[in-house]
Design brief:
This protein has helices spanning about 5-25, 35-40, 45-50, 95-105, 150-155, and strands at about 55, 65-70, 75-80, 90, 115-120, 125, 135-140, 145, 165-170, 175-180. The protein has about 190 residues and is an alpha+beta fold.
Amino acid sequence: MIRMDAVMKLLTTVLLTVATAFAESSDRLPVTDAEKIADALRAGPEFITKDATLLDWPSAPGGEYRLLRKGSNEWTCLPAILGDPHDEPGCFDQVFLQFIKESMAGLTPNVQRIGLSYMYGGKWVPNRSHAMGSGAEFHVGPHIMIIGLDQKIMQTLNHDGSNGQPYVNHLPGRTELYLVIPIRQWDEQHVHE
């Protein structure tokens, strides 16, 4: 027979775990360097983040990206942008990072190869079709982004992310498109029947 105190301990543990998960997923933006590092590390799979360089966003467009941690692989992860309405960290390969830097500085990106990015925390995007409810925006869960060379092909792809399918998007105030592909997180467990 199960003892009531054991049931209460189990229930308390479950509730604390759920409360912690909700607290960690809030849109409270990281402020301290330790918070920014933790935020950047949750942006992609561990096989990338464990050795990635971690940078902080510049304080002004075109400014310097501040080093939070030196890495040893080809990836760079950044925390949420301070001042944005949502906590949306990302991990970028060298091509996608250069695309981001040039775009954020107001320059026309010079993309010469395919670039990749992870956003395990997801991203809030405009709700163009209202397929995901009546709000002005909705949350796209974990996804990868791909920047390519051919913008003409990108323009022919789906532009509506609210249907759960891959779609193209652009940075605020920019026109250069990149492909967004919703994914499961690398370490997410799969249930087999």
